Amino acid sequence: MYPSHLVQLVGTSGQRQKGLDIYASHLDGDFGIQCKCQSKITPSQLAKIVADVLKHRHPIKKLLVTYNGKRDEPLQSRARLITAEHHSLGHFAVEVHSWHDILGYLKLHPMIAAIYLPEYRPPDLSFNVDTSKTECSNKLSSMDALITRYQLDLAQQELEDLKPRLFDIADNDLKFKYYCSLGRLRSKLGKVTEAGKLFIQAATYLDTPEALLKKASGLLMIDRSAEALEIALSVTDHDPNNGEAWSIVIRASAVLHKYFEVEKIPIGTRREDKVLYALAAASAHRQEYRQADELFEHLRKNEDSELSTNKDVIAEHAKVKMILLQNQPDFQPGDGCGDVLRQQLISITQLLKGPIDELLATGSLHHRVHWLELRSQAQFFLGNYREALNDLEIALVLEPDSSSLKKSKAVVLAQTGSADEALPLLDQVAESPQVPEARLIKAHILMEAGREDEARKELRTLMNADLPKKLALGVRTLLLRLEISKGNEPAIARLLKELSRHGATRAEVLA
After folding, report:
1. Is residue 502 part of a domain?
2. Measured between alpha carbons, how far is 99 from 69 in angstroms, rounded to an integer?
3. Rounded to whole angstroms, how far apart are CA atoms 294 and 482?
4. Counting beta carbons within 10 angstroms of the beta carbon of residue 92, is it exposed (0 to 12), middle (13 to 18) or buried (19 or more)?
5. Which domain, by its residues, includes 91?
6. Does residue 211 fall inside a structural domain?
7. How many domains does the chain contain in total?
8. Between the N and C ends of the chain, which has fewer C-beta atoms within 10 Å?
9. Cβ atoms of residues 447 and 482 within 8 Å
10. How much is the pTM?
11. Residue 61 domain-assigned?
12. Segment 36-68, tens digit of pLDDT
Protein backbone atom coordinates (compact mmCIF):
# COMPACT_ATOMS: atom_id res chain seq x y z
CA MET A 1 0.00 0.00 0.00
CA TYR A 2 2.81 2.44 0.79
CA PRO A 3 3.24 5.04 -0.64
CA SER A 4 -0.38 6.07 -1.18
CA HIS A 5 -1.76 9.33 -2.50
CA LEU A 6 -4.42 9.45 0.19
CA VAL A 7 -4.74 7.27 3.29
CA GLN A 8 -7.51 7.81 5.82
CA LEU A 9 -8.45 6.10 9.04
CA VAL A 10 -12.15 5.30 8.98
CA GLY A 11 -14.08 6.95 11.82
CA THR A 12 -13.07 7.08 15.50
CA SER A 13 -13.40 4.79 18.48
CA GLY A 14 -17.02 3.86 19.10
CA GLN A 15 -18.24 4.64 15.59
CA ARG A 16 -19.45 2.02 13.13
CA GLN A 17 -16.73 1.59 10.50
CA LYS A 18 -18.74 -0.33 7.86
CA GLY A 19 -16.19 -3.13 7.55
CA LEU A 20 -13.08 -0.99 7.03
CA ASP A 21 -10.43 0.46 9.34
CA ILE A 22 -8.39 2.23 6.64
CA TYR A 23 -9.34 3.59 3.22
CA ALA A 24 -6.62 4.41 0.67
CA SER A 25 -6.86 6.06 -2.73
CA HIS A 26 -4.09 5.15 -5.15
CA LEU A 27 -3.38 5.54 -8.87
CA ASP A 28 -3.98 1.81 -9.31
CA GLY A 29 -7.40 1.98 -7.61
CA ASP A 30 -8.88 2.36 -4.14
CA PHE A 31 -8.03 -0.11 -1.36
CA GLY A 32 -9.70 -0.98 1.91
CA ILE A 33 -7.93 -2.47 4.96
CA GLN A 34 -9.47 -4.34 7.87
CA CYS A 35 -7.09 -4.79 10.84
CA LYS A 36 -7.70 -7.65 13.29
CA CYS A 37 -5.76 -7.66 16.56
CA GLN A 38 -5.98 -11.42 16.94
CA SER A 39 -3.56 -14.30 16.44
CA LYS A 40 -5.81 -16.28 14.10
CA ILE A 41 -8.58 -15.71 11.58
CA THR A 42 -10.58 -18.67 10.32
CA PRO A 43 -11.81 -18.98 6.72
CA SER A 44 -15.39 -18.54 7.92
CA GLN A 45 -14.44 -15.36 9.80
CA LEU A 46 -12.80 -14.06 6.63
CA ALA A 47 -16.00 -14.74 4.69
CA LYS A 48 -17.98 -12.69 7.26
CA ILE A 49 -15.51 -9.78 7.01
CA VAL A 50 -15.83 -9.82 3.22
CA ALA A 51 -19.63 -10.01 3.38
CA ASP A 52 -19.71 -7.00 5.72
CA VAL A 53 -17.60 -4.93 3.32
CA LEU A 54 -19.74 -6.03 0.36
CA LYS A 55 -22.90 -5.04 2.22
CA HIS A 56 -21.74 -1.44 2.45
CA ARG A 57 -20.74 -1.33 -1.24
CA HIS A 58 -17.37 0.33 -0.82
CA PRO A 59 -15.95 1.27 -4.29
CA ILE A 60 -12.62 -0.50 -3.71
CA LYS A 61 -10.39 -2.53 -5.98
CA LYS A 62 -8.88 -4.67 -3.24
CA LEU A 63 -9.58 -5.58 0.41
CA LEU A 64 -6.58 -6.32 2.63
CA VAL A 65 -7.27 -8.17 5.88
CA THR A 66 -4.38 -8.03 8.38
CA TYR A 67 -3.90 -9.91 11.66
CA ASN A 68 -1.06 -10.45 14.16
CA GLY A 69 -0.70 -14.20 13.80
CA LYS A 70 1.21 -16.65 11.62
CA ARG A 71 0.61 -17.32 7.96
CA ASP A 72 -2.22 -19.80 7.43
CA GLU A 73 -2.55 -21.76 4.17
CA PRO A 74 -6.31 -22.56 4.50
CA LEU A 75 -6.96 -18.84 5.08
CA GLN A 76 -4.84 -17.85 2.06
CA SER A 77 -6.65 -20.43 -0.09
CA ARG A 78 -10.04 -19.06 1.00
CA ALA A 79 -8.90 -15.53 0.08
CA ARG A 80 -7.85 -16.72 -3.39
CA LEU A 81 -11.16 -18.53 -3.87
CA ILE A 82 -13.15 -15.43 -2.90
CA THR A 83 -11.04 -13.32 -5.27
CA ALA A 84 -11.78 -15.72 -8.15
CA GLU A 85 -15.52 -15.58 -7.39
CA HIS A 86 -15.43 -11.80 -7.10
CA HIS A 87 -13.57 -11.42 -10.40
CA SER A 88 -16.49 -12.89 -12.36
CA LEU A 89 -18.92 -10.62 -10.49
CA GLY A 90 -16.85 -7.43 -10.81
CA HIS A 91 -16.16 -7.22 -7.05
CA PHE A 92 -12.90 -6.46 -5.23
CA ALA A 93 -9.98 -8.85 -4.75
CA VAL A 94 -9.18 -10.16 -1.25
CA GLU A 95 -5.74 -10.63 0.34
CA VAL A 96 -4.74 -11.72 3.85
CA HIS A 97 -1.54 -10.46 5.49
CA SER A 98 -0.12 -12.10 8.60
CA TRP A 99 2.24 -10.53 11.14
CA HIS A 100 5.13 -12.29 9.39
CA ASP A 101 4.12 -10.66 6.13
CA ILE A 102 3.98 -7.24 7.80
CA LEU A 103 7.48 -7.67 9.26
CA GLY A 104 8.71 -8.56 5.79
CA TYR A 105 7.27 -5.34 4.37
CA LEU A 106 8.91 -3.32 7.15
CA LYS A 107 12.32 -4.37 5.84
CA LEU A 108 11.55 -2.23 2.79
CA HIS A 109 10.56 0.72 5.00
CA PRO A 110 13.36 1.16 7.54
CA MET A 111 12.25 4.62 8.70
CA ILE A 112 8.73 3.39 9.49
CA ALA A 113 10.22 0.43 11.35
CA ALA A 114 12.56 2.72 13.28
CA ILE A 115 9.73 5.02 14.39
CA TYR A 116 7.01 2.53 15.30
CA LEU A 117 8.78 -0.78 15.97
CA PRO A 118 12.42 -0.13 16.90
CA GLU A 119 12.67 -3.49 18.64
CA TYR A 120 12.01 -5.30 15.35
CA ARG A 121 14.42 -3.27 13.26
CA PRO A 122 17.17 -5.60 11.91
CA PRO A 123 20.75 -4.36 12.27
CA ASP A 124 21.31 -4.41 8.49
CA LEU A 125 18.72 -1.68 8.01
CA SER A 126 20.96 1.05 9.42
CA PHE A 127 21.40 3.82 6.88
CA ASN A 128 22.46 7.39 6.41
CA VAL A 129 19.53 9.50 5.21
CA ASP A 130 21.62 12.10 3.38
CA THR A 131 23.64 9.43 1.58
CA SER A 132 20.48 7.55 0.63
CA LYS A 133 18.88 10.72 -0.74
CA THR A 134 21.87 11.31 -2.97
CA GLU A 135 21.83 7.71 -4.15
CA CYS A 136 18.10 7.91 -4.91
CA SER A 137 18.54 11.18 -6.80
CA ASN A 138 21.34 9.65 -8.87
CA LYS A 139 19.22 6.58 -9.46
CA LEU A 140 16.36 8.72 -10.77
CA SER A 141 18.76 10.48 -13.12
CA SER A 142 19.89 7.12 -14.47
CA MET A 143 16.21 6.17 -14.89
CA ASP A 144 15.71 9.26 -17.04
CA ALA A 145 18.68 8.20 -19.17
CA LEU A 146 17.10 4.76 -19.67
CA ILE A 147 13.83 6.40 -20.72
CA THR A 148 15.69 8.62 -23.20
CA ARG A 149 17.29 5.48 -24.70
CA TYR A 150 13.85 3.79 -24.87
CA GLN A 151 14.89 1.03 -22.50
CA LEU A 152 11.44 1.43 -21.05
CA ASP A 153 10.90 -2.02 -19.57
CA LEU A 154 14.16 -1.77 -17.65
CA ALA A 155 13.34 1.78 -16.51
CA GLN A 156 9.93 0.65 -15.28
CA GLN A 157 11.42 -2.20 -13.27
CA GLU A 158 14.10 0.06 -11.79
CA LEU A 159 11.50 2.66 -10.75
CA GLU A 160 9.34 0.01 -9.11
CA ASP A 161 12.35 -1.36 -7.23
CA LEU A 162 13.32 2.14 -6.08
CA LYS A 163 9.88 3.25 -4.88
CA PRO A 164 9.72 1.52 -1.45
CA ARG A 165 13.15 2.76 -0.39
CA LEU A 166 12.75 6.25 -1.83
CA PHE A 167 9.51 7.11 -0.06
CA ASP A 168 10.92 6.24 3.36
CA ILE A 169 13.59 8.93 3.04
CA ALA A 170 12.38 11.25 0.30
CA ASP A 171 11.83 14.95 0.74
CA ASN A 172 9.44 16.80 -1.55
CA ASP A 173 12.15 17.47 -4.15
CA LEU A 174 12.79 13.75 -4.56
CA LYS A 175 9.08 12.93 -4.66
CA PHE A 176 8.59 15.56 -7.36
CA LYS A 177 11.45 14.10 -9.36
CA TYR A 178 10.14 10.53 -8.91
CA TYR A 179 6.64 11.32 -10.19
CA CYS A 180 8.08 13.33 -13.10
CA SER A 181 10.20 10.34 -14.12
CA LEU A 182 7.25 7.99 -13.78
CA GLY A 183 5.05 10.35 -15.80
CA ARG A 184 7.67 10.61 -18.53
CA LEU A 185 7.91 6.82 -18.64
CA ARG A 186 4.13 6.42 -18.94
CA SER A 187 4.09 9.02 -21.71
CA LYS A 188 6.76 7.12 -23.66
CA LEU A 189 4.68 3.96 -23.20
CA GLY A 190 1.76 5.72 -24.84
CA LYS A 191 -0.28 5.95 -21.63
CA VAL A 192 -0.90 9.67 -22.00
CA THR A 193 -3.79 10.08 -19.56
CA GLU A 194 -1.92 8.18 -16.86
CA ALA A 195 1.18 10.29 -17.53
CA GLY A 196 -0.84 13.48 -17.19
CA LYS A 197 -2.19 12.44 -13.79
CA LEU A 198 1.33 11.63 -12.61
CA PHE A 199 2.65 15.06 -13.66
CA ILE A 200 -0.24 16.69 -11.79
CA GLN A 201 0.60 14.54 -8.74
CA ALA A 202 4.27 15.59 -8.99
CA ALA A 203 3.26 19.25 -8.89
CA THR A 204 1.62 18.83 -5.47
CA TYR A 205 5.03 18.43 -3.83
CA LEU A 206 6.59 21.77 -4.81
CA ASP A 207 5.49 25.37 -5.09
CA THR A 208 7.77 26.48 -7.94
CA PRO A 209 7.35 27.61 -11.57
CA GLU A 210 8.78 24.24 -12.65
CA ALA A 211 6.08 22.41 -10.69
CA LEU A 212 3.37 24.71 -12.08
CA LEU A 213 4.49 23.94 -15.63
CA LYS A 214 4.58 20.23 -14.89
CA LYS A 215 0.97 20.54 -13.73
CA ALA A 216 0.13 22.42 -16.94
CA SER A 217 1.73 19.64 -19.02
CA GLY A 218 -0.36 17.09 -17.14
CA LEU A 219 -3.55 19.07 -17.67
CA LEU A 220 -2.79 19.27 -21.39
CA MET A 221 -2.47 15.48 -21.47
CA ILE A 222 -5.88 14.90 -19.85
CA ASP A 223 -7.71 17.29 -22.19
CA ARG A 224 -7.92 20.21 -19.78
CA SER A 225 -6.14 22.52 -22.20
CA ALA A 226 -7.83 25.76 -21.08
CA GLU A 227 -6.47 25.31 -17.53
CA ALA A 228 -3.04 24.39 -18.91
CA LEU A 229 -3.03 27.55 -21.03
CA GLU A 230 -4.00 29.74 -18.06
CA ILE A 231 -1.20 28.34 -15.88
CA ALA A 232 1.46 28.62 -18.61
CA LEU A 233 0.47 32.22 -19.39
CA SER A 234 0.71 33.11 -15.70
CA VAL A 235 4.31 31.83 -15.71
CA THR A 236 5.19 33.89 -18.81
CA ASP A 237 3.82 36.99 -17.06
CA HIS A 238 6.53 36.63 -14.42
CA ASP A 239 9.19 35.10 -16.67
CA PRO A 240 8.79 36.14 -20.34
CA ASN A 241 11.87 34.11 -21.34
CA ASN A 242 10.57 30.76 -20.03
CA GLY A 243 10.67 28.53 -23.12
CA GLU A 244 8.90 25.64 -21.40
CA ALA A 245 5.95 27.90 -20.53
CA TRP A 246 5.71 29.24 -24.09
CA SER A 247 5.82 25.73 -25.55
CA ILE A 248 2.78 24.79 -23.44
CA VAL A 249 1.02 28.02 -24.49
CA ILE A 250 1.63 27.12 -28.15
CA ARG A 251 0.38 23.54 -27.81
CA ALA A 252 -2.66 24.44 -25.71
CA SER A 253 -3.64 27.23 -28.12
CA ALA A 254 -3.51 24.79 -31.05
CA VAL A 255 -5.71 22.25 -29.25
CA LEU A 256 -8.20 24.98 -28.33
CA HIS A 257 -8.13 26.36 -31.92
CA LYS A 258 -7.04 29.74 -30.58
CA TYR A 259 -4.96 32.11 -32.67
CA PHE A 260 -1.56 32.70 -31.09
CA GLU A 261 0.84 35.49 -32.02
CA VAL A 262 4.34 34.01 -32.11
CA GLU A 263 5.68 37.58 -31.98
CA LYS A 264 4.67 37.70 -28.30
CA ILE A 265 7.59 35.38 -27.52
CA PRO A 266 10.94 37.18 -27.05
CA ILE A 267 13.17 36.59 -30.08
CA GLY A 268 15.85 34.68 -28.17
CA THR A 269 13.30 32.39 -26.52
CA ARG A 270 11.51 31.90 -29.85
CA ARG A 271 14.66 30.26 -31.19
CA GLU A 272 14.87 27.71 -28.36
CA ASP A 273 14.49 24.14 -29.53
CA LYS A 274 11.60 23.31 -27.20
CA VAL A 275 9.67 26.31 -28.57
CA LEU A 276 10.44 25.39 -32.20
CA TYR A 277 9.35 21.81 -31.49
CA ALA A 278 6.08 23.04 -29.98
CA LEU A 279 5.51 25.26 -33.03
CA ALA A 280 6.16 22.29 -35.34
CA ALA A 281 3.78 20.02 -33.41
CA ALA A 282 1.13 22.77 -33.28
CA SER A 283 1.43 23.32 -37.04
CA ALA A 284 0.94 19.60 -37.65
CA HIS A 285 -2.09 19.62 -35.31
CA ARG A 286 -3.60 22.45 -37.41
CA GLN A 287 -2.77 20.44 -40.57
CA GLU A 288 -0.31 23.12 -41.69
CA TYR A 289 2.08 20.39 -42.80
CA ARG A 290 4.35 22.52 -45.00
CA GLN A 291 5.17 24.82 -42.09
CA ALA A 292 5.58 21.85 -39.74
CA ASP A 293 8.02 20.24 -42.20
CA GLU A 294 10.15 23.40 -42.35
CA LEU A 295 10.28 23.68 -38.55
CA PHE A 296 11.20 20.01 -38.10
CA GLU A 297 13.87 20.40 -40.78
CA HIS A 298 15.34 23.36 -38.90
CA LEU A 299 15.40 21.36 -35.65
CA ARG A 300 17.12 18.37 -37.21
CA LYS A 301 19.83 20.46 -38.85
CA ASN A 302 20.85 22.05 -35.55
CA GLU A 303 23.57 19.61 -34.50
CA ASP A 304 23.99 21.32 -31.13
CA SER A 305 20.40 20.48 -30.20
CA GLU A 306 19.43 17.31 -28.32
CA LEU A 307 16.22 17.30 -30.33
CA SER A 308 18.17 16.87 -33.57
CA THR A 309 18.73 13.23 -32.60
CA ASN A 310 15.52 12.70 -30.61
CA LYS A 311 13.89 9.61 -32.10
CA ASP A 312 10.31 10.76 -31.51
CA VAL A 313 11.03 14.10 -33.20
CA ILE A 314 12.59 12.31 -36.19
CA ALA A 315 9.61 9.96 -36.50
CA GLU A 316 7.13 12.85 -36.24
CA HIS A 317 8.99 14.60 -39.04
CA ALA A 318 8.82 11.46 -41.19
CA LYS A 319 5.06 11.27 -40.59
CA VAL A 320 4.59 14.91 -41.62
CA LYS A 321 6.61 14.30 -44.80
CA MET A 322 4.43 11.29 -45.66
CA ILE A 323 1.22 13.30 -45.23
CA LEU A 324 2.63 16.08 -47.43
CA LEU A 325 3.39 13.57 -50.18
CA GLN A 326 -0.02 11.94 -50.06
CA ASN A 327 -1.69 15.35 -50.23
CA GLN A 328 0.03 16.19 -53.52
CA PRO A 329 -2.47 16.15 -56.40
CA ASP A 330 -0.01 14.32 -58.68
CA PHE A 331 0.88 11.67 -56.07
CA GLN A 332 1.42 8.45 -58.04
CA PRO A 333 2.95 5.67 -55.90
CA GLY A 334 4.56 2.49 -57.15
CA ASP A 335 6.88 1.88 -60.07
CA GLY A 336 5.50 4.93 -61.89
CA CYS A 337 6.46 7.51 -59.26
CA GLY A 338 8.71 10.31 -60.51
CA ASP A 339 12.26 11.02 -59.43
CA VAL A 340 11.31 13.83 -57.04
CA LEU A 341 8.64 11.73 -55.33
CA ARG A 342 11.01 8.77 -55.17
CA GLN A 343 13.70 10.86 -53.46
CA GLN A 344 11.18 12.16 -50.93
CA LEU A 345 10.01 8.62 -50.11
CA ILE A 346 13.61 7.44 -49.79
CA SER A 347 14.31 10.32 -47.39
CA ILE A 348 11.43 9.07 -45.19
CA THR A 349 12.89 5.55 -45.04
CA GLN A 350 16.31 7.02 -44.25
CA LEU A 351 14.88 9.20 -41.48
CA LEU A 352 13.31 6.17 -39.82
CA LYS A 353 16.25 3.80 -40.25
CA GLY A 354 18.32 5.09 -37.32
CA PRO A 355 15.52 5.15 -34.71
CA ILE A 356 14.20 1.72 -35.79
CA ASP A 357 17.63 0.07 -35.84
CA GLU A 358 18.53 1.49 -32.43
CA LEU A 359 15.31 0.31 -30.78
CA LEU A 360 15.58 -3.06 -32.50
CA ALA A 361 19.12 -3.48 -31.11
CA THR A 362 17.99 -2.66 -27.54
CA GLY A 363 14.85 -4.84 -27.71
CA SER A 364 12.60 -1.80 -27.29
CA LEU A 365 10.96 -1.61 -30.71
CA HIS A 366 7.66 -3.00 -29.38
CA HIS A 367 7.07 0.45 -27.87
CA ARG A 368 7.19 2.12 -31.31
CA VAL A 369 5.72 -0.41 -33.74
CA HIS A 370 4.01 2.39 -35.69
CA TRP A 371 7.46 3.48 -36.92
CA LEU A 372 7.76 0.16 -38.76
CA GLU A 373 4.30 0.61 -40.22
CA LEU A 374 5.20 4.10 -41.46
CA ARG A 375 8.43 2.89 -43.09
CA SER A 376 6.55 -0.02 -44.64
CA GLN A 377 4.13 2.47 -46.18
CA ALA A 378 7.02 4.42 -47.72
CA GLN A 379 8.56 1.21 -49.08
CA PHE A 380 5.18 0.23 -50.52
CA PHE A 381 4.82 3.55 -52.33
CA LEU A 382 8.34 3.06 -53.69
CA GLY A 383 7.31 -0.32 -55.07
CA ASN A 384 9.69 -2.11 -52.67
CA TYR A 385 7.10 -4.71 -51.69
CA ARG A 386 9.52 -7.22 -50.19
CA GLU A 387 10.95 -4.56 -47.83
CA ALA A 388 7.42 -3.38 -46.97
CA LEU A 389 6.37 -6.93 -46.10
CA ASN A 390 9.50 -7.48 -44.03
CA ASP A 391 8.73 -4.42 -41.85
CA LEU A 392 5.11 -5.49 -41.41
CA GLU A 393 6.04 -9.04 -40.46
CA ILE A 394 8.44 -7.76 -37.78
CA ALA A 395 5.70 -5.40 -36.56
CA LEU A 396 3.16 -8.25 -36.37
CA VAL A 397 5.56 -10.32 -34.27
CA LEU A 398 5.61 -7.41 -31.81
CA GLU A 399 1.85 -6.67 -32.07
CA PRO A 400 0.19 -9.84 -33.39
CA ASP A 401 -3.37 -8.61 -32.79
CA SER A 402 -3.04 -5.25 -34.57
CA SER A 403 -5.90 -4.75 -37.06
CA SER A 404 -4.05 -1.91 -38.77
CA LEU A 405 -0.94 -4.03 -39.38
CA LYS A 406 -2.97 -6.94 -40.74
CA LYS A 407 -4.82 -4.62 -43.10
CA SER A 408 -1.55 -3.09 -44.31
CA LYS A 409 -0.02 -6.53 -44.88
CA ALA A 410 -3.08 -7.59 -46.88
CA VAL A 411 -2.72 -4.54 -49.13
CA VAL A 412 0.95 -5.35 -49.85
CA LEU A 413 0.20 -9.03 -50.46
CA ALA A 414 -2.58 -8.14 -52.89
CA GLN A 415 -0.22 -5.83 -54.77
CA THR A 416 2.24 -8.71 -55.20
CA GLY A 417 -0.49 -10.97 -56.60
CA SER A 418 -1.06 -12.95 -53.39
CA ALA A 419 -4.80 -12.28 -53.08
CA ASP A 420 -5.42 -15.69 -51.52
CA GLU A 421 -3.15 -14.72 -48.61
CA ALA A 422 -4.52 -11.19 -48.36
CA LEU A 423 -8.24 -12.00 -48.15
CA PRO A 424 -8.10 -14.11 -44.93
CA LEU A 425 -6.22 -11.27 -43.20
CA LEU A 426 -8.97 -8.82 -44.18
CA ASP A 427 -11.62 -11.26 -42.96
CA GLN A 428 -9.91 -11.25 -39.55
CA VAL A 429 -10.27 -7.47 -39.23
CA ALA A 430 -13.50 -6.89 -41.15
CA GLU A 431 -15.44 -5.98 -37.99
CA SER A 432 -12.68 -3.93 -36.38
CA PRO A 433 -13.61 -0.26 -35.81
CA GLN A 434 -9.90 0.61 -36.18
CA VAL A 435 -9.96 -0.29 -39.90
CA PRO A 436 -13.46 0.41 -41.29
CA GLU A 437 -11.94 0.41 -44.78
CA ALA A 438 -11.05 -3.32 -44.59
CA ARG A 439 -14.20 -4.52 -46.39
CA LEU A 440 -13.74 -1.93 -49.14
CA ILE A 441 -10.15 -3.09 -49.67
CA LYS A 442 -11.40 -6.69 -49.77
CA ALA A 443 -14.03 -5.78 -52.38
CA HIS A 444 -11.37 -4.08 -54.49
CA ILE A 445 -9.11 -7.16 -54.33
CA LEU A 446 -12.03 -9.45 -55.22
CA MET A 447 -12.93 -7.26 -58.20
CA GLU A 448 -9.32 -7.22 -59.45
CA ALA A 449 -9.29 -11.02 -59.13
CA GLY A 450 -12.41 -11.28 -61.33
CA ARG A 451 -14.66 -12.32 -58.42
CA GLU A 452 -17.18 -9.58 -59.07
CA ASP A 453 -20.22 -11.18 -57.42
CA GLU A 454 -18.33 -11.54 -54.14
CA ALA A 455 -17.07 -7.96 -54.43
CA ARG A 456 -20.63 -6.71 -55.04
CA LYS A 457 -21.84 -8.58 -51.93
CA GLU A 458 -19.19 -6.93 -49.75
CA LEU A 459 -20.03 -3.48 -51.13
CA ARG A 460 -23.77 -3.88 -50.62
CA THR A 461 -23.12 -4.83 -47.01
CA LEU A 462 -21.16 -1.58 -46.62
CA MET A 463 -23.91 0.49 -48.29
CA ASN A 464 -26.02 0.17 -45.14
CA ALA A 465 -23.16 0.89 -42.74
CA ASP A 466 -22.52 4.21 -41.00
CA LEU A 467 -19.25 5.22 -42.68
CA PRO A 468 -17.14 8.38 -42.87
CA LYS A 469 -17.94 10.45 -45.98
CA LYS A 470 -14.74 9.58 -47.85
CA LEU A 471 -15.21 5.87 -47.23
CA ALA A 472 -18.91 6.00 -48.20
CA LEU A 473 -17.92 7.67 -51.47
CA GLY A 474 -15.30 4.98 -52.07
CA VAL A 475 -17.88 2.20 -51.59
CA ARG A 476 -20.35 3.75 -54.05
CA THR A 477 -17.64 4.60 -56.57
CA LEU A 478 -16.33 1.03 -56.63
CA LEU A 479 -19.85 -0.35 -56.90
CA LEU A 480 -20.44 2.08 -59.79
CA ARG A 481 -17.40 0.64 -61.57
CA LEU A 482 -18.84 -2.85 -61.16
CA GLU A 483 -22.23 -1.83 -62.51
CA ILE A 484 -20.62 0.00 -65.46
CA SER A 485 -18.66 -3.13 -66.38
CA LYS A 486 -21.92 -5.08 -66.24
CA GLY A 487 -23.88 -2.42 -68.16
CA ASN A 488 -26.56 -2.17 -65.49
CA GLU A 489 -27.97 1.26 -66.44
CA PRO A 490 -30.67 1.57 -63.69
CA ALA A 491 -28.06 0.76 -61.02
CA ILE A 492 -25.61 3.21 -62.62
CA ALA A 493 -28.17 6.02 -62.55
CA ARG A 494 -29.09 5.28 -58.93
CA LEU A 495 -25.46 5.24 -57.79
CA LEU A 496 -24.70 8.52 -59.60
CA LYS A 497 -27.57 10.15 -57.72
CA GLU A 498 -26.34 8.71 -54.43
CA LEU A 499 -22.83 9.97 -55.10
CA SER A 500 -24.18 13.43 -55.84
CA ARG A 501 -26.25 13.33 -52.65
CA HIS A 502 -23.12 12.42 -50.67
CA GLY A 503 -21.37 15.50 -52.04
CA ALA A 504 -19.11 13.84 -54.63
CA THR A 505 -17.78 16.16 -57.32
CA ARG A 506 -17.63 15.19 -60.97
CA ALA A 507 -13.84 14.96 -60.71
CA GLU A 508 -14.11 12.53 -57.76
CA VAL A 509 -16.57 10.32 -59.65
CA LEU A 510 -14.39 10.31 -62.77
CA ALA A 511 -11.32 9.53 -60.66
Report:
1. no
2. 5
3. 43
4. buried
5. 6-125
6. no
7. 1
8. C
9. yes
10. 0.69
11. yes
12. 888 889 999 999 999 988 887 778 888 999 998
